[in-house]
């Protein structure tokens, strides 16, 4: 018992540290919003998470330190405070910064290709596999039908008889 | 007909080849403005030299013009300044300045020191107009036609090459002399 306890508590300490670190990261994004109620803060987190920073292109608004990202964050907070819906806020950003600001592309138009291509690939793959397995199953099936079987049997008999004849004829000479 | 299936990988390969080749040499950070073909966003902001006077979209209408987003904190704006001077003086194209998130006092001092290429300067102290335009840094330069529609956005320094290859043809097409 006394052996196990210190080891466990060390692990627990690490876990606690990790948790605190994660909580700090969450609070860092939360603090910039200046929104009072929890539901609005949650929406703020969602929106800054799914909108992309136009300046530093591979970061979302929540992550980015660029001045324009800070501006857009405060703009989002303002719009949430005004009672706009998430959809309206995303539209507002797209109208100004273009389709680019969405991390999740709109379904429709040319983007439809983007959404459907993986599913299409999967479908084609499944089709190919299905086709191939069906063919190999067919390979295991009887190669000949009854008539062909009968013909083969007759051919074999014929061959055997010819061999026997040949041996008979060759016999006396040998 | 059965062999048709062997062409599919080739077709996919060629398709991908064309797609990827067309992407080569493109600048991935180049973003077309969301406002192309749309009217310049409405604003009502003070004039840098007469702060009690409010300017609106009428400053970008009448003749095709360039709208330049600049600030004193923007080092690249200093770089493009001589070219803007040349465009305003030699090409006779009106350049409208938008002083973006800057201190008007410092902006006036900056223009006094380096000369003022702008026909008017709009003070966008809090970046509200910048936000409506989709500005994400300075300098940015917009080509606006006589009706106040946005034709083009250039992000970064305007130099002679940008003028000759991009801005001048668009302005000519829009009817600038």
In short:
Chain A has helices spanning 4-31, 38-50, 67-81, 86-97, 111-140, 146-173.
What gyration radius of chain A follows from the Cα positions, in whole Å?
Answer: 37 Å
Strand portion of chain B? 15-25%
Radius of gyration of chain B: 21 Å
Q: Which strand order spans the largest sheet of chain B, edge to edge or round the barrel?
A: 5-4-3-6-7
* Alpha-carbon distance between the two ends of chain A: 96 Å
Q: Would you kindly provide a written description of the structure presented here, covering whatever features stand out?
A:
The complex is a heterodimer of chains A (174) and B (177). Chain A is mainly α. Chain A is 72% helix and 0% strand. In chain A, helix 2 packs antiparallel against helix 3. The longest helix of chain A is centred in the last third of the chain and has 30 residues. Chain A starts with a helix and ends with a helix. With 177 residues, chain B is an alpha/beta fold. Chain B contains five helices and seven strands. In chain B, the strands form two sheets. In chain B, strands 5-4-3-6-7 form a five-stranded mixed sheet. In chain B, helix 3 links the parallel strand 4 and strand 5. The longest helix of chain B is centred in the middle third of the chain and has 17 residues. Chain B is elongated and about 80 Å long. At the A-B interface, helix 3 and helix 4 of A face helix 4 of B.
């Amino acid at each position: 018992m006394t052996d196990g306890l210190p080891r466990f508590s060390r692990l627990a300490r690490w876990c606690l540290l990790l948790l605190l670190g994660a909580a700090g990261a969450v609070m860092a994004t939360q603090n910039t919003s200046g929104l009072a109620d929890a539901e609005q803060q949650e929406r703020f987190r969602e929106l800054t998470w799914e909108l992309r920073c136009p300046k530093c292109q591979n970061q979302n608004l929540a992550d980015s330190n660029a001045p324009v990202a800070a501006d857009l964050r405060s703009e989002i907070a303002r719009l949430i405070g005004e009672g706009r819906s998430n959809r309206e806020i995303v539209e507002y950003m797209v109208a100004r910064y273009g389709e680019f600001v969405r991390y999740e592309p709109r379904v429709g138009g040319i983007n439809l290709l983007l959404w459907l291509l993986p599913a299409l690939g999967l479908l084609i793959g499944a089709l190919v596999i299905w086709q191939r397995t069906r063919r190999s199953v067919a390979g295991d099936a009887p190669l000949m039908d009854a008539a062909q079987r009968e013909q083969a049997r007759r051919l074999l008999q014929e061959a055997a008889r010819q061999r026997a004849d040949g041996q008979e004829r060759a016999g006396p000479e040998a | 007909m059965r062999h048709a299936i062997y062409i599919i990988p080739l077709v996919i390969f060629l398709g991908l080849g064309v797609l990827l080749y067309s992407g080569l040499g493109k600048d991935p950070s180049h973003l077309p403005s969301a406002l192309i073909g749309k009217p310049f966003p409405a604003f009502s902001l003070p004039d840098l030299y007469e702060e009690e006077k409010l300017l609106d979209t009428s400053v970008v209408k009448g003749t095709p013009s360039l709208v330049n987003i600049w600030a004193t904190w923007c080092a690249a704006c200093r770089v493009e300044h001589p070219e803007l001077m040349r465009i305003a003086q030699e090409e006779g194209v009106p350049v409208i300045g938008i002083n973006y998130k800057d201190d008007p006092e410092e902006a006036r001092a900056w223009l006094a020191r380096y000369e003022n290429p702008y026909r008017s300067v709009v003070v966008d102290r809090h970046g509200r107009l910048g936000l409506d335009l989709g500005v994400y840094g300075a300098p940015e330069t917009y080509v606006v036609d006589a009706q106040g529609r946005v034709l083009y956005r250039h992000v970064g320094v305007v130099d002679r090459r940008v003028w000759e290859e991009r801005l001048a043809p668009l302005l000519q097409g829009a009817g600038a002399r």
